[in-house]
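Lab channel / #folding
Pinned by the channel admin:
"Please post every new chain as: sequence first, then the structure tokens as a reply. Keep commentary short and put observations after the output so the thread stays searchable."

First post following the new format, from NK:
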Amino acid sequence: MAGLNLNKILLIGNLTRDPELRYTSGGAAMVNFTVATNHRYTTAAGETRDEACFVRVTVWGKIAENCGKYLGKGSPVFVEGRLRQNNWETDKGEKRSTLEVVAQSVQFLGRRDASSGGGSGPEAKQEDDDNIPF
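Reply from TO:
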């Protein structure tokens, strides 16, 4: 089945630090944050263990502004997006690469300030992927 491709990622986890909202020279909003997810498993010896995975997420546009406004360290989120690989070379000529998630939607699963009431926060969705600058 040549020609079929799928690049979709779904994550539920908590932010490891406050989001970093910035604006490009063209005025586009961009935010970065890291989501921690946990995988619980049982070893052959019967011990229960947790394995943490830390995933860098990049968000663009209005959704980025909403993330910067409503999210903070520890906030639970549901992120839907795609994987993107970044490649670069260091000053010493060493090749490096990293994977990140470019979010197309972020659902806020909790409130930043628990005293502001219960329930879920708003959902932010990127409608047009073609308008995201990279």
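NK: The beta strands are 9-15, 20-23, 29-42, 48-60, 76-89, 95-108, 123-125.
TO: also worth noting, The two ends are 30 Å apart (CA to CA).
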